TXD15 protein (Chaetops frenatus), 209 residues
Amino acid sequence: VLEPVLPAPAEEQNGTDGAKAPKVNCEERNATGIDRFTLQILNVSQDLMEFLNPNSSDCTLVLFYTPWCRFSASLAPHFNSLPRAFPTLRFLALDASQHSSLSTRFGTVAVPNILLFQGAKPMARFNHTDRTLDTLKDFIFNQTGIEAKSDVSVTEEDWEGPLPSVLTKGIDWLLLFSVLFLAGFVMYATIRTDSIRWLIPGQEHEHQE
């Protein structure tokens, strides 16, 4: 079952407008004593819902990506820099091919896909085709009213990780299975159609004539 996700309104996607009330009232975490603000990547055995507190109003930006998607790779350094720009928010990323149930649950049929959660509830989806640090900052500000630190930019370290910016070779097994299943179904339907046609009275004589 797909959970409802409110899309970011088109009029709020471009630029920042301080006069508009934030769509999501986030509880900002206490960043005192934290020396390094970084993105956390979930491995195949970790469940996203374990990192989201349903009883809290804190906000988390979650990225669904795949390591062989060139759009995910180009987004990586910009997303890696976000925790420094918004130290009071949390940032997570997960390989959608390893968490297919979550991808289905939240309707992330394409990658990269970015969702803003409040607690464990998805509140907004990032709909920009231009995925840069500036557009990500604008999206977060328009949704939460939280301003980014002005001195944060994409650095060389952001290109190195934690989210990979270099494509890795891999096979989309889900896509391959879907194609094989569809091809098999078409072949089976074709064979069954021919078999049924020969069983219909009159069809054989018509064919011979």
The longest strand covers residues 59-65. Residues 10-18 have pLDDT under 50 and may be disordered.
